[in-house]
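Project outcomes to date are best conveyed with an example. Our students and postdoctoral researchers have been running inverse folding experiments weekly, and each run begins with a structure described purely in tokens. The record below, which covers 207 residues, was selected by the lab manager from last quarter's runs and is presented without edits.
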């Protein structure tokens, strides 16, 4: 693949959104695809083919795969991942845009940070809404969908950058337009929280 500024931009948009959902799955997928020469990545991302980076990313993906499916604990996990997903997505974008002009590289890096933050924040908000339900099935289903989306979007972006970029851009716009609705839903969940706690007391009620 010949990388032009537009294909690099499309790739960055897609992998930044994927990283906001699951950064370990995104990095591991990029590394595996490039390591086995199934795809060609921008020269700045050559480090991702390192077996150590692939191995650590894959291991952390396995940890997140299980941690992200435990109701309540997944909120703590996702809050902690704020300090991982956005910074790593920003670094990957910076390296991917290394062959662009300094101005374009800075712009691509800033855009990647914003896109990853939107994806991560929306994921955390969605998890908060789902965790309000006491059953664990919805948590598992949502988490599995997010994992699959991160891997699938990364694959599409490396094979068809424009398609992957368009999908990610559409998701970002949808999330932005849904922001007010998400805030309202979160507020309702928070207002109902005392009732939910009373329905599930920490100690059994003696009748």
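After processing, the design step wrote out the following sequence:
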């Amino acid at each position: 693949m010949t990388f032009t500024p537009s294909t690099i931009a499309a790739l960055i948009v897609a992998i930044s959104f994927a990283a906001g959902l699951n950064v370990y799955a995104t990095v591991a997928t990029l590394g595996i695809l490039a390591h086995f020469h199934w795809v060609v990545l921008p020269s700045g991302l050559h480090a991702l083919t390192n077996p150590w980076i692939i191995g650590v990313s894959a291991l952390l993906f396995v940890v997140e795969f299980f941690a992200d499916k435990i109701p309540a604990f997944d909120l703590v996990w996702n809050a902690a991942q704020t300090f991982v997903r956005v910074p790593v997505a920003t670094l990957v974008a910076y390296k991917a845009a290394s062959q662009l002009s300094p101005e374009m590289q800075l712009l691509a890096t800033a855009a990647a940070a914003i896109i990853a933050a939107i994806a991560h924040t929306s994921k955390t908000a969605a998890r908060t809404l789902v965790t309000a339900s006491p059953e664990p099935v919805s948590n598992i289903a949502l988490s599995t969908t997010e994992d699959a989306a991160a891997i699938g979007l990364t694959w599409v972006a490396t094979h068809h950058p424009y398609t992957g970029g368009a999908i990610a851009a559409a998701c970002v716009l949808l999330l932005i337009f849904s922001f007010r609705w998400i805030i309202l839903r979160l507020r309702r969940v928070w207002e109902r929280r005392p009732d939910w706690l009373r329905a599930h007391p920490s100690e059994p009620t003696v009748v």
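Confidence is low (pLDDT under 50) at residues 196-207. The two ends are 71 Å apart (CA to CA). The training component of this project remains on track.
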